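Sequence in, structure out. Go.
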Amino acid sequence: MEIIGTGHIDRDKPEADQMVTNLASAVKDSPSEVERRRIEREAGARHAASNYFQEKRGLVQSSDVKVKRDGDRVAVSWNTALAGAEPLQSYEIRAGERLLLSLPFRPQLTEAPLTAMVPADGVGSDKVSVIASEAPPRARA
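Output:
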């Protein structure tokens, strides 16, 4: 079995969760390497407007970036970016053009936004942005 999509996730009732069923089936009845490649080619060639990942867009940046000052620190929160052809590897928090923090990508597993703290004096009055990248995290310049 080849897993090419999940339509229903039920964290409260795993026996009704399609991901659990897909994983169990994949372990039990794995296709050959040749068959897996054939399935991937066929699935990749199809296009349906029902799913973001079928749209074949590029990387879509983080949304709903918010800043909350807390004394000498600033809490930055954001919603995850969506990967393009390559997986996300890092987020950069910037004030204007200045890099304040580069951190490894982590998935947003709940509706709660991702958050990080940065020094308030680094932010100043500049606009804060969160930039997702396919490159690994880097040191501050």
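Check: The chain has a mean pLDDT of 82. The helical segments are 18-28, 33-45, 120-123.
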